[in-house]
Amino acid sequence: MTDDDQPPCARPGTVWDGHPLLTARLRLRPLGPADEPELVRLLDDWDVVRHTAAIPHPYTAADAAAFVALMAERRARRQGVALAMERSLDGRLVGCVGFGLDHDGTPELGFWVGRAFWGQGLATEALRRLIRHLLADLGMPRVWASAHPDNHASIRVQERLGLGLAGVETVALPARGQSVAMPVRALDAAAW
User: Fold this and answer.
1) Where does the chain have alpha helices with state H?
2) Rounded-to-integer distance, Cα 155 and Cα 184, Å
3) Which of 20, 84, 133, 188 has its C-alpha lying 20 to 30 A from 33's C-alpha?
4) How far is it, in rounded angstroms, from Cα 179 to Cα 107?
5) H or E segment at 128?
């Protein structure tokens, strides 16, 4: 397979290149080992993780270290990236946003926000910047996301950003020991 035969995200230089993405209130940057204690503090909260597929509860220092290492490996393999949502004002980690690549190279968006920061529009702000980067800067044709049907806040964020219902798929939630039929929402570059 040549570079021209690969999906856009798989081509060298077309996945996020490592520079921070900036918004009015946030700096989106790679996670590192220094973030691990704050990840534990934010994610050891059942209300934050209960609708997620793979975040365990309780959340430990070992979980944070494994996650940071896995995200560095995925970024190096150009399979996606998880970015710290860091407040510009004080450098505080408030959550994560990122994307993974499905089998055809289409970015799947994901995010979570610590409970103390809910209701401030930070997820919308971070995802808007990431979507702009993926669609406008990197030329991706489409992005998509799913959310647990009971996660009304995440669904509202997706809808606010213009992701329209594209179907329903059964998603395994290994950290919860179940599968759930989840609505899938997508946004084409032409509609952005």
Assistant:
1) 36-43, 46-49, 61-76, 122-132, 152-160
2) 10
3) 133
4) 22
5) helix 122-132
CA-closest candidate to residue 89, choices 26, 35, 32, 37: 26
Which stretches of the chain drop beneath a pLDDT of 50?
1-14
- Whether omega before 7 lies within 30 degrees of 0, making that bond cis, reads no
Judge whether 109 and 144 are in contact, CB under 8 Å: yes
| Sign, CA torsion 34/61/116/134 | positive
Please give the pLDDT value at position 13: 40
Output the pLDDT for position 15: 55
* Element housing 83 (H / E): strand 80-87
Beta bridge partners of 29: 84
Instruction: Give the global pTM.
Output: 0.89
Amino acid at 57: H
